[in-house]
Every structure is written in C-alpha cells, then in structure tokens.
Amino acid sequence: MYLVLIIFLFICPINAIILSQVYRSAVYHTNSSCARLSNVTLAGDASIQSCIWECAHQDQCRTAVYFHENRTCLLYTEDCQSGNVTSSESDRASVICYRRNQGSHTECSLRDWKNTGTMSVARYRHTASILSNGKVLVTGGYNGVSLNSAELYDLSTGNWTTTGTMSVARHAHTASILSNGKVLVTGGWTGTVSLNSAELYDPSSGNWTTTGNMSVARYYHTVSILSNGKVLVTGGQTGSVSLNSAELYDPSTGNWTTTGTMSVARYWHTALILSNKTVLVTGGCCSINTAELY
Ligand SMILES: *[C@@H]1O[C@H](CO)[C@@H](O)[C@H](O)[C@H]1NC(C)=O
Ligand SMILES: *[C@@H]1O[C@H](CO)[C@@H](O)[C@H](O)[C@H]1NC(C)=O
Ligand SMILES: *[C@@H]1O[C@H](CO)[C@@H](O)[C@H](O)[C@H]1NC(C)=O
Ligand SMILES: *[C@@H]1O[C@H](CO)[C@@H](O)[C@H](O)[C@H]1NC(C)=O
Ligand SMILES: *[C@@H]1O[C@H](CO)[C@@H](O)[C@H](O)[C@H]1NC(C)=O
Ligand SMILES: *[C@@H]1O[C@H](CO)[C@@H](O)[C@H](O)[C@H]1NC(C)=O
Ligand SMILES: *[C@@H]1O[C@H](CO)[C@@H](O)[C@H](O)[C@H]1NC(C)=O
Ligand SMILES: *[C@@H]1O[C@H](CO)[C@@H](O)[C@H](O)[C@H]1NC(C)=O
Ligand SMILES: CC(=O)N[C@H]1CO[C@H](CO)[C@@H](O)[C@@H]1O
C-alpha cells in the first residue's frame, strides 16, 4: 500500500498566491469531465518543483499530481480534499494541493457552458477578433440581410456595446489584427455582389476608415499576417467563380499588390503560417486534396 502520508509544507514565492501541502502518494482520478486542466510532461531533469510552478501559473489549478516515474504533471481545477479527486492506490505520485487566496478561488463549473451578454443583432458568417485591449470585436455577418454593424464584448462585464459601423454590409469576409493593433476587414459578400473593398477599425476611436481595394472582389478567402507585417490574401470566390489569385496588403501604405497565383483555385480552404514562416494552404472546395506553400 502506497498511502504513506508524506506531509510537508511548501510556501510558493510566486505572487504571494499560495499555501500548499504535498501529502501522499497514489494515482489520482477525478470524476468530473471539466476538472482536468492539462497534463505536462516535464523535461528530463525536472523535479516536482516544476509541477508546482505549472499549477501556480494556471489560475484555475487547485490540485496537481506529479508522477515520479515519467515526470508527468497533471493539473486539476478541483480541490484535492473535496473527495472529487480520488486515489486508485497504485503508482508513485505526489499530490499538490493549492489553497488560493480569496478572489482567485474558482469552481470546476466555470468550465461548463454558461450564458453571457447577448449581442444586439443575431448574426452568422460574421467575424470575431480579440483586440490588444482584450475586448472582442464582432463584425458584419448575415441574418436574412447582410450586416454592416459591429459590436464589442467586454470580458470584465460580459456585456456587448455597439461600435462604429462598417461602410459596407458584408458576410463571409475576414478580419485580422495587424501589428499596429488595427483590425483589417477584407472582402465578403453583400448578398448580391462580392466585395473588393477593405476597411480598418481603430480600437482607440471605435472608428472605421476605408483602405485600398483588393484587385479582385472575393469572399470565402483566407488572410494570413506574414512575419514582415504584410497581409496575404488567397483564393476565395468572386461571384460563383473560384479564384487562384493572391494579393499582399502593405499596412504602411494601405495598398495591395498582386503576388504569385496558386496552382489551384480554392475557396473554403485554409492557410496557416508554419514555424519556418512559409504559408501552407490546404484543400478547399470542392474535393481538393492538394496543398501548397507560399
Ligand atoms: C505517467 O504515469 C502515470 C502512472 O503510471 C500514468 O497514469 C500516466 O498516463 C503517465 N503519463 C504519460 C504521459 O505517459
Ligand atoms: C464534486 O464535483 C461535482 C461535479 O463536478 C460538484 O458539483 C461538486 O461540488 C464537487 N464537490 C466538491 C466538494 O467540490
Ligand atoms: C463524484 O464525486 C461526488 C462528490 O464527491 C460523489 O458524490 C460522486 O459519487 C462521484 N461520482 C463518481 C461516479 O465517482
Ligand atoms: C451589463 O448588462 C446588464 C444587463 O443589461 C446590466 O444590468 C449591467 O449593469 C451591465 N454591466 C455593465 C458593467 O455595464
Ligand atoms: C471617430 O471617433 C470619434 C470619437 O469616438 C468621433 O468623435 C468621430 O466623429 C469619429 N469620426 C468618424 C469619422 O467617424
Ligand atoms: C474601391 O472600390 C469601390 C468600388 O468597388 C470604389 O467606389 C472606391 O472608390 C474604391 N476605392 C479606392 C480607394 O480605390
Ligand atoms: C498607393 O496607391 C495609390 C493609389 O493607387 C497611389 O497613388 C500611391 O502611390 C500608392 N502608394 C504606394 C506607396 O505605392
Ligand atoms: C519551410 O518548410 C517547407 C516545408 O517543409 C519547405 O518547403 C520550405 O523550403 C521551408 N522554408 C524555409 C524558409 O525554410
Ligand atoms: C495521462 C494523460 O492524461 N495523458 C494525456 C496527456 O495529453 C496528451 C495530449 O493531450 C494525451 O494524449 C495523453 O493521453
């Protein structure tokens, strides 16, 4: 039986958050699906201190379990003394219990779904972007008509407020955060025509300004912010025609230039920036299994 009670007190120096106790060896299970925060396999020379550090730096962590054999650190939202984290009495492990200060106390149920503020307008095929100030900007979309409105979500209150209106109603468009903090909205569909226009949202004023037009009107396209700050737009549809063209936006001039075309016309495809800074484009409508690099 492993239930040896090893009690030692550990005062965490970080942010004065925590008093913790490490108290026994066993494998621990939790019976609520929301309770597991993450598991981290620590580097070869890592110790239990690294597991404590991981828990200390996750706001919701209240229990950490460190497996000595494989140096795996599991983090839970549940209080280890609640009875919801239970022992299976097998492998050698240490359980770290955190008692967080008042105010940082969180319940497992935070991981469930709950309602928050309601937008002023119902919308789909809209965009949502996290601004550098932490607020969320939602733009355009469709709800029977194409929308030009935009709203801001304030996570500290859970409320939405309307903000500046785009010059054009659009859905199936894109929104991207530029390195200067502004939001670039491109293209889209009005319901009757595809759009070549682009607009910039300034979070500090809540205003929109138009910027250069793309050379091609497009919707269902992709946008990637390149490491040099320029913005790559690929493919999409114009009217009912699928596009293989790509264009670059320069935020310093507000102008677009065309760049190399893809080998295949694509819409509803994906574009990702790889760790070596090339752009990987995959698939697209319809039945395209090819991928290409920019
Ligand atoms: C580490 O060991 C524990 C106990 O044997 C096991 O439950 C866990 O799955 C292991 N983790 C990994 C990542 O292998
Ligand atoms: C145990 O988990 C259940 C469901 O997640 C929760 O309702 C209950 O409050 C938890 N018990 C304690 C003592 O935390
Ligand atoms: C889950 O934890 C609660 C609270 O400790 C307990 O009452 C319940 O029986 C547990 N459920 C299962 C399936 O272990
Ligand atoms: C958020 O909205 C609710 C409901 O309209 C209101 O009662 C509350 O005062 C608002 N909070 C803030 C901080 O505006
Ligand atoms: C920009 O925002 C400011 C402050 O919110 C407002 O006074 C001004 O009228 C706006 N300008 C435009 C062009 O919308
Ligand atoms: C962008 O295109 C629209 C029509 O699609 C036109 O009205 C507008 O003047 C153009 N803007 C610029 C900056 O060229
Ligand atoms: C941007 O485009 C405008 C209008 O086509 C042009 O007058 C201007 O010279 C361009 N700026 C740059 C830096 O290319
Ligand atoms: C990045 O990775 C791709 C895929 O392996 C490769 O084709 C490309 O040459 C790489 N680019 C650079 C700059 O290393
Ligand atoms: C023990 C455990 O839960 N391991 C999981 C850690 O996370 C990886 C990836 O999320 C899972 O594949 C492991 O099963």
Automatic annotation (TrEMBL):
Transmembrane segments: none annotated. Gene3D superfamilies: Galactose oxidase/kelch, beta-propeller, Kelch-type beta propeller. SUPFAM superfamilies: Kelch motif. Keywords: Kelch repeat, Repeat, Signal. Residues 1-16 form the signal peptide. The keyword Signal applies. InterPro entries: Gal_Oxidase_central_sf, Kelch-typ_b-propeller, Kelch_1. The keyword Repeat applies. This is Apple domain-containing protein.
